[in-house]
């Protein structure tokens, strides 16, 4: 299951990366919009060019010209306008092409990072739970062995105490009892 989940995550990452890479102008599809359709909005305002062409035309704000978007590729339009990407409006007039590219890249990056984080959390959390369970079993086994050793040690200590008491009894040496024996003192005689 873990290998399948990781394989799916890799394929999703690869597909996202391939879709996020911009196409070269040489591989871009030719536009279905003829230059005449966009050029009829030249000299007019941005809204008339962008809204009436339904995303097929881009508007150069500085020159007030309307160009087809995919005639030479999306990013080749920046060469047609003097201001570059910050001068082009496409899809909406309130956001220029540069801001649109940066915004879409940031949102796409955040989505990609959050997707990867979710996949990592799913893989790691399951492993972490299994690992914790394994550690808990090992800790329980270690604690059980420690208790067994303590019990054996207490048993041996009790046996030793019994043997020591028997020896003390045999020789008349009891704890707390002075016994019948006394220390002999040396005489000066």
TrEMBL record:
InterPro entries: PTTG1IP
A GO cellular-component term linked to this record: cytoplasm
Signal sequence coordinates: 1-20
GO biological process: protein import into nucleus
Keyword Transmembrane helix set for record: yes
Transmembrane intervals: 97-125
PANTHER family linked: PITUITARY TUMOR-TRANSFORMING GENE PROTEIN-BINDING FACTOR, PROTEIN CBG20567
UniProt name for this protein: PTTG1IP
Organism phylogeny: Eukaryota, Metazoa, Spiralia, Lophotrochozoa, Bryozoa
